[in-house]
Amino acid sequence: QTVLQGIILLPLRVVCITFILLLAWLAASIATFCQPGRGFLPLKGWRRRMIQTALSGLTRTAYFVMGFQVKVKGKVASLPEAPIFVAAPHSSFFDAIICALTGMPSIVSRAENLSTPIFGTILSSLQPVAVSRQDPDSRKNTVAEITRRASSGGQWPQVM
Prior knowledge:
mainly alpha; two-stranded parallel ribbon
């Protein structure tokens, strides 16, 4: 019985997750289409709300389809309370659920991730702080960018 369930559920889950991923890509593409100040100015208005609601909901749905049910204990810190928050040990795909539960904050990511098909578009919509491993000044530039965003008075989303 368990093997039969797996044979049926696995392809169904793969199809559902693929569909959710394509919807997330579409939402990210629409929200960042003809974006003024691409990467240098924060998303505002309907663009930011679309990223927060659509991507957060789709991410939570994808995890549900994979069989994960996440409950939040406590209260998520707001932007004024914590402009920067850390997710540790951040070594797996579970970081995405933290993003979904906290309103899709900006993240720190390798610059190479932005050129990945589909995922790169979704990641770009979060307006990440890109870290280049080839640039010797990247660490200093990353710290400066995180500081700039954290001290922007709430113009930028939280940085994870």
